Amino acid sequence: MGAxxxxxxxxxxxxxxxxxxxxxxxxTWEGHLIAKGDAQGASRVQAAWDxxxxxxxxxxxxxxxxxxxxxxRVTHETAQRETERQARDAAAATAVRGLRDQVARLNARPDxxxxxxxxxxxxxxxxxTARELFGESAGAYAQLAAEADGLRDQVxxxxxxxxxxxxxxxxxxxxx
Length: 176
Hints:
By secondary structure, the protein is an all-alpha fold. The chain has one domain (3-166). The protein has two helices and no strands. The longest helix has 106 residues, at 3-108.
């Protein structure tokens, strides 16, 4: 009978060791599954992050391209307006020079009136003065028109910028 209780003790110890080994194996397997799940979750999160970053990079690149194209377009349109303004300024300057040349020709011609008539001589002097004032006024008007053209071009450019960038409707009467 002595062998029976010892054998029962070994059996109990063996069962306890087997239970401990089973618990250790289950816990190890559980840890492995958790680590595998964490790795899969991290992989999914990283993939989602990478996809969002790629979308953000693509959107930023598209936005940069649009901004660059808008800047090129604005630069081109500004250069065109400047060229047109310079052509208008040159035409106005030519017209003013022609007017001044005509005034100089009229002022240089000989007086057709008899030398003794003071009233006619005064009228001739007044006509000369009026022609010179008209020539100077035309020059001042041309300069004022050039400044107004420059301001008009600025307003048109700003309205175009606001319309294209912000999307606000352009003011129709302001640029006409």
